[in-house]
Structure formats: structure tokens, C-alpha cells
Specification:
Two copies of one chain form a homodimer. By secondary structure, chain A is an alpha/beta fold. Chain A has twelve helices and eight strands. Chain A has two domains: 259 residues, Aldolase class I (TIM Barrel, Alpha-Beta Barrel), CATH 3.20.20.70; 39 residues, no CATH class. The termini of chain A are far apart.
């Protein structure tokens, strides 16, 4: 698939940070930055810009806050065309500050929101847009939103200055026909906006659904190294690169950083396809119950878990 | 997706047997048979009917041969509507015998063939059809066949009495649009035949491609427990069951046999998504080089492997 408009964003540090409270080493983050730079990836998301009031610093690593100075330290001395992004949860904005874009290492602010918080997202979007940043609004968990509310949110967003709006399948519930439907809905209600896609891999459909979104003209696509991310993880960046034939991409640095860092990391951190995540995906549920299960002694009691979730839904 | 014509075949023992020389215990095979029976699965493939001349019995377990008596022993005492199938490689037929269907535990013979061996497949198909079996012809590795040869093979198969013809993405190379194209090609050249789909998971697309084949009217779909199978494995049966809403299916026995048997088995056997399999899939190559890599000391040297394969293709 060669379409020069397609841009790729790596969310390894940001979504991966959700499974280790954002305690990646500086060495690792630098290695990822270097690899993505060599590979021709368009954006790297460094983490969250979280409120230290809501998220006390004694509980989280640096990538929960992504202070500008910290980021400058990481990228120092590495030649790169990669643009940097940071994510903010619209419903968890308190004292966080953003420098004007000229004084910041970041190029893009991504605002994650539920439909119910879209007004907060829009206020924040205006604030950071006025500081000069590219912005995206990422609507999470849309597989459980009713279409009336979703369309109302889209119509509000259509009137903003945001450049990009993301379809986020937080629960890993959708398959191709649903992706086609939802992307078409976004297109209809967001004329002139670039669309993005962020998928989860509960049913091993993250890469497939990313392809389907690309076929329907999504031009900003998220992936992560070896699919790292919360629960079942994300669309593997290496598979996106195998699919996109744009000659500016080079897969080798990505393979290298996976072999050097991700494989050892898998000894300590768990992500990817597992039955409890498949169950929450199939049943269109938040993965939090599956994540909790995997941390306890019943981690492989699938039938019990399936019945608990079913009972809970009744 | 509720379409009563869709039948599901479990190939756990057959395709899984390729990673342990077919040495599954009788207890495990019985447990799978019992689970599939309770789950409402339509077919279970017990293994291969191989030539003992080509495949010496000191090297392989019972599921390489699937002698009728052995199978009777396994299913004895378990109530079941599951039909049994066995696979034969068309190019490795020598002294293998088949009893008339009334005297056999099997209902269906699946004939695996490359395009070049289709004449052998047709001869064997006629022989076993005349003994009363349902038959399928499974055309392997079609992602490397030219369309002229493939169409010639399809036209020959169209003239046989086989009920079903399978699309087999042996290399895990296809994505949705290619699946659509190839299934349409099969439909055009095989009027009146049921179509089947068997996918490999090199690019995490086995389940997605199975769905796409179902959307294009494939009505016999292969899966395996937790996706077990050679290399990157197959489409996970549990995901097919989550997708198909036919009320005759019950996912719980499948989850149970996965938790009781497949999770412990993963300690000793490797299958599923790994970078070397992704590489052979992306490059449309047979997975044998990736399988060999995983058995050696360089199992995680992905960049070297990628370059070797690229050089080898030049």
C-alpha cells in the first residue's frame, strides 16, 4: 500500500507505559527514538502529560509526565526527522502546562477522550492549538457508544481546529465491517479532517483492522514495537512496515530494537494475545477485569472468568 | 455471523502435530475430542494418514498415521456428533489404505496438494470418494502460484466429485483484499462446490482472513485450540467461536481444554506470532527457514535472518 499521505505513529513508550507504570529506562527510550528515526517513522509518542496531583510522582516513571526538559535530554545528539507527540487525558487535566511549540520538544498533542468528555477535549484542544501544536482528538471506547451521542461529539469536533480525529477501538472488539462502518461515519461528520486509527489486539485483529482503516482512507496509523501495550497490546509496528511499501521506511532498525530490547523485556512484562483479553474483546468489555485476573493466582482460570464476566453483564 | 451453512473444523491435532512429530498423548486427544463434542464443533481432524515407507514409524507418533483402530480407541465411550477427518498429502501417497466409510471411524478425507500435484490429488479423491467418504481438496501455498496454473487446477477439480475445495494460505502472506480476490476466483471456477479456508498466523491475520473468507461465502473454516500449528500457527478456534453466533456452539468446553492442556503444553512447544514468522509471511516465503532459525542459537537474531532471506530471494 503506497499512499504518501499515510503517516505512522509509534506508541511504544506511551501505551507500553501502561503496563509498567511508565518506568522505562532512558537507555531504552533513546534506543527506540534512534530506531524510529532510522526507520523513517513519522511520529513517536513519548508518553503522557499527566497532572502530578492526580498522578503522584512517587508512583510513576518519567513517561507519565514527559516534562520538556526530560524529553530534550532523551533526544539530545540523535539525528532525526521524527516528530514527537504526547498524550493528555481530557478528563484528567488539572495543572499541566504546555510551552509554546517553539520552546517545546513536542510537535503534536494528542487528546484522549470519552464521548462524554468531549467538551473538555475541545477546550484543551483550543488551548494547545493556540500554542502552535498539531492536535489530534482520540475518541476512546467507541464500541460502547450509542451513535446519537457519538455523532453529536463528532459534529462538535468538526467545528474545532484539530487536524486529526482518531477512531480508537479500546476494547479490541471490532472486526472489519464495523471498522468500515465507523470510519465512514467519521468521514461523513468530519469533512476535511485527517482520520487516525488506534487498535487493540484482543482478538488478534489490531493489524487487520488497521489495514481496513487504511483502505477507508485513515492516514495516521498507530503501532508499537512487537505490539506492546496494555492488555492484549496494539498493532505491531513491524507488521505495518511490512504492509506499507513507501520506500522511505526501513524495517531493519525496528527489527533490531525488538531483538535487543523487546525480547528481554518480555521476560518481565506481559502483553499480547491471551484468553482473558480475547474474552473481554469478544464481549465488548473494558480489559481491566482481564488485567486484574492476570495479576492474581487465577490467571489461567478462563471458564470461571468467562462466567464472571457474563454474570456481571446480566 | 449466523449462517447455518458454516461448519467449523478443528485441526489442533493435525496441524499441531507438525511441531511435535505427532506425539500427542491419548489423554490429550481424547480431551480435545470430548471438548469439541461438547462445544458443537462440526469436524475434528485427527492427523495424517501417511505412508510408513515415506514416514518411518520410529520417527513419528500415532497421529501421523491415524490407523482406524487407534481412532476407535480414542473416541470410545464419548458421546459425540463430531465428524472425523484425516489428511493425506497427494504427493506422498504410497501404500496407505482406506476402509469403506461404513467400516471406518472417519467421515471425511482431506487431500492436501500443491498445484503441481493436482492430478495426484484427483486420483486419490476419486478413490476415497468411491469408498463413500466426504472429500476436500486443499490447495496449499497459493500465494506463490501463478494464476494460469491455479485456474487450470481449479477447472480440473471442478470436474471431480469433491464436495469442498480449500483456499490455504500456507505462508500467512495474504491480507483481506487478496483473500477476497482468491475466494472470488475459486467461486468462479468451482461452481457448486463448497469452499473452505485455512489460514496461517504469520502476520496475525489468520482470524481476520478467516472472517473475510466467511464474508465471501466460505462455509468450511479451520481453527485450532489457542491457534496451535506449525510456525506462527493457525486461526484460533476460540476466536471463531466468539465470532459465529450460531447457538449450537458453546465456547466453555473450548476455554476449559485450553486452560487444562494448551497452557501447560506451551511450556514445551512453541507456536504463534514471532518475528521470524512475520518476516517469512511478509516476504511470501515458506516458513521452514524461520522454523529452523527458532531451533538454533540465533533464534532471536532477526536482522541477520531478514537479510539472509532477502539475499536468498535475489
Amino acid at each position: 500500500m503506497y499512499r504518501p499521505e499515510i503517516k505512522v505513529l509509534d506508541c511504544t513508550i506511551r501505551d507500553g507505559g501502561l503496563i509498567n507504570n511508565h518506568y522505562f529506562t532512558d537507555e531504552f527510550v533513546r534506543a527506540v527514538y534512534r530506531a524510529l528515526s532510522e526507520a523513517g517513522i513519522d511520529y513517536m509518542e513519548m508518553g503522557y502529560r499527566s497532572s502530578r496531583t492526580y498522578a503522584p510522582p512517587e508512583q510513576y516513571g518519567a513517561w507519565k509526565y514527559c516534562d520538556d526538559d526530560k524529553i530534550r535530554q532523551i533526544i539530545d545528539g540523535i539525528e532525526s526527522d521524527v516528530k514527537l507527540s504526547v498524550m493528555v487525558d481530557a478528563h484528567r487535566v488539572l495543572e499541566q502546562q504546555f510551552a509554546p511549540v517553539d520552546e517545546s520538544p513536542f510537535d503534536m498533542i494528542r487528546i484522549a477522550t470519552y464521548v462524554k468528555d468531549v467538551d473538555k477535549a475541545i477546550v484543551l484542544q483550543k488551548r494547545v492549538h493556540d500554542l502552535g501544536y498539531e492536535t489530534t482528538i482520540n475518541i476512546m471506547a467507541i464500541s460502547t457508544e450509542n451513535e446519537f451521542d457519538l455523532v453529536e461529539a463528532l459534529d462538535q469536533i468538526a467545528a474545532t481546529t484539530t487536524g486529526t480525529v482518531y477512531v480508537v477501538d479500546s476494547f479490541g472488539y471490532f472486526f472489519s465491517e464495523q471498522i468500515h462502518y465507523i470510519v465512514e461515519l467519521f468521514k461523513r461528520h468530519l469533512p476535511g479532517k485527517r482520520l487516525g486509527i488506534h487498535c487493540h489486539n484482543n482478538q488478534q485483529l489490531a493489524f487487520a483492522n488497521t489495514i481496513e482503516a487504511i483502505r477507508k482512507d485513515c492516514n495516521l496509523v498507530d503501532g508499537s514495537l512487537f505490539g506492546i501495550g496494555r492488555g492484549a497490546g496494539n498493532c505491531p509496528l513491524e507488521l505495518i512496515m511490512g504492509f506499507l511499501k513507501n520506500p522511505k521506511f526501513n524495517i531493519e532498525p525496528v527489527l533490531k530494537v525488538i531483538q535487543d530490547y523487546m525480547i528481554p523485556m518480555r521476560q518481565d512484562l506481559e502483553w499480547g494475545y491471551l484468553i482473558p483479553y480475547a474474552i473481554t474483546g469478544i464481549l465488548n468489555q473494558h480489559p481491566r477485569s482481564a488485567i486484574a485476573l492476570r495479576e492474581g493466582p487465577d490467571r489461567d482460570k478462563y471458564v470461571e472468568f468467562y462466567n464472571q464476566i457474563r454474570d456481571h453483564m446480566d
